[in-house]
Design brief:
This protein has eleven helices and seven strands. It is α+β, with helices and mostly antiparallel strands and 329 residues long. A hairpin with a 2-residue loop joins strand 5 and strand 6. The longest helix is centred in the middle third of the chain and has 18 residues. It is globular, with a radius of gyration of 21 Å.
Length: 329
């Protein structure tokens, strides 16, 4: 029996184990690709399943003109494009077009908005980063992608993250090279206007600097010494917490918000578990409820050389299960 390689054709007699052996190694990076396209981990997981199902059904017709990996990405991209037809974009509060909020004002919740979701990662060298830089799953980058049309997203990701040639992208999504170049130019221009600055380099999440700042950040919450955060945040730091629509700029406003709105009152009321999300330092916050600490928020941090510059605090308890975190502490 012949052994299939990346560039050999699938045959009618190809078994499920043959297909799995060639497709499964790409599951995690396909998940990252579908996540970049949709901004939703849950949608991405469903789309990867759909991609692999479509690939399995057509595996006997795979002619080996490209690698299995390229073939799977083509299927995944088109599966995402179909799924995104008529769908709302997934923003963060800073993407709603409003100015920064008053920390003393009432919080406004919009649970009906399909908010952007974070991406869990086991370690800084997670296979989600096999393609492209760590910045390609950075939360701010994925949020910026939401401002693009689905086809612009697809073209930008295939060209700039996966480094495909324009002709390969055109064939993958069923258009012309001229159309691909036009879509890419418009996508890059729009991304420059709304996306993270190329000069806004984040510290490596496993660097001593990032680990020190994360430890100080966690210590401030756990000891309920919130004023200590002024030494952790940058002067123009941003805080947002979907599903609430407000966002807050500057360490003083952020600290005022926490003092005003956080239900914790004493040291030990909050406990935090460090982790990784979107290739960035993150922490899961548990809040005291009787004798236990229960899921409250999941914080994803931008850490630069001068401090924590951005925090997205997700108030979605289901994320704790998604990240493999305990139901209580």
């Amino acid at each position: 029996m012949s052994v299939l390689t990346e560039n050999t054709a699938g045959g009618e007699g190809a078994s499920a184990s043959d297909f799995a052996a060639h497709a499964e190694p790409y599951r995690r990076e396909l998940l990252a690709h579908c996540y970049r396209m949709t901004g939703s981990l849950h949608d991405a997981e469903d789309l990867v399943q759909e991609t692999l199902l479509r690939a399995w059904k057509s595996y006997d017709r795979f002619e080996g003109r490209s690698s299995v990996r390229t073939w799977l990405y083509r299927i995944a991209t088109n599966t995402c494009l179909t799924a995104l037809e008529g769908q709302q974009r997934r923003p963060l509060p800073t993407g709603l077009g409003t100015s920064s909020s008053d920390p003393t004002a009432e919080l406004v919740e919009r649970a009906e908005v399909p908010w952007l979701e974070p991406l869990p990662q086991a370690d800084p060298h997670d296979p989600a980063e096999v393609v492209g830089r760590r910045e390609s799953v950075r939360l701010a980058f994925v949020a910026a992608l939401q401002h693009l049309s689905a086809r612009q997203r697809a073209v930008l990701l295939l060209r700039d993250v996966l480094q495909w040639k324009a002709a390969e992208v055109a064939e993958a999504i069923g258009t012309t090279t001229v159309a691909v170049n036009s879509l890419l130019q418009r996508a890059r221009t729009q991304l420059e206007a709304v996306g993270p600055s190329t000069e806004d380099r984040l510290a490596d999440p496993d660097s001593a600097q990032a680990q020190d700042l994360l430890a100080r950040y966690i210590a401030a919450f756990e000891s309920y010494d919130i004023d200590q955060l002024v030494d952790v945040f940058t002067a123009e730091a941003i805080w947002e917490m979907p599903p609430y629509t407000g966002w807050y700029r500057g360490a003083r406003d952020i600290i005022a918000l926490i003092h005003q709105k956080c239900p914790a009152e004493l040291p030990g009321d909050m406990r935090m578990v460090p982790l990784l999300a979107n290739g960035q330092p993150a922490a899961a916050m548990y809040l005291r409820m009787g004798e236990r600490h229960v899921p409250f928020q999941l914080h994803v941090l931008d850490i630069r050389s001068d401090g924590v510059s951005h925090v997205v605090a997700f108030l979605d308890g289901s994320l704790f299960t998604t990240f493999g975190l305990p139901e209580s502490l």
